[in-house]
Amino acid sequence: YRDLNDHQYRDAVFNATVNIIEREEGFDAETFFMYVFMVSGLSLLMFILHYVYTTVRKGGRQSGGRKTIEKGTKKDDGVDLSWLPEGTIPGPKKSPKASPRNRSSKK
């Protein structure tokens, strides 16, 4: 390669415009997540409307009707505790025969 002043260059410089063409993709992550958030928002809105509709139709939460009675826990003797060491399960506690006040006054 030689320039106008007759200087010789060994490597030719590429001097042209390069066109970059983006390939059209079938999957766009931005659009996908937009649809996911739209569906989740619509589902949440439907759940809230359903909840409000069912509570208004029932007349709210009234205390009338069937009440639950707490009965407490029952002792279940069907539990196998034989695998536990002896010292881990305390036996029934024996109450003192005299109150602490009476014991200290006797001394």
Considering the chains and any ligands shown, give keywords for the structure.
107 residues, mainly alpha, 0% strand
Textual characterization of the structure:
The protein is an all-alpha fold and about 110 residues long. Helices cover about 35% and strands about 0% of the residues. It has helices spanning about 30-55, 100-105. It starts with about 30 loop residues before the first helix and ends with a helix.
Q: Quick recap of the structure?
A:
The protein contains two helices and no strands. With 107 residues, it is mainly α.
- Global outline: elongated
* Class per helix and strand makeup: mainly alpha
- SSE string, helix = H, strand = E? HH
**Low-confidence regions:** none
Number of strands: 0
Determine the number of helices (DSSP H or I, runs of at least 4 residues). Answer: 2
Beta percentage is: under 5%
Helix content: 25-40%
Largest sheet: none
Distance between the termini: 123 Å
Radius of gyration: 43 Å
Please state the average pLDDT score.
Answer: 78
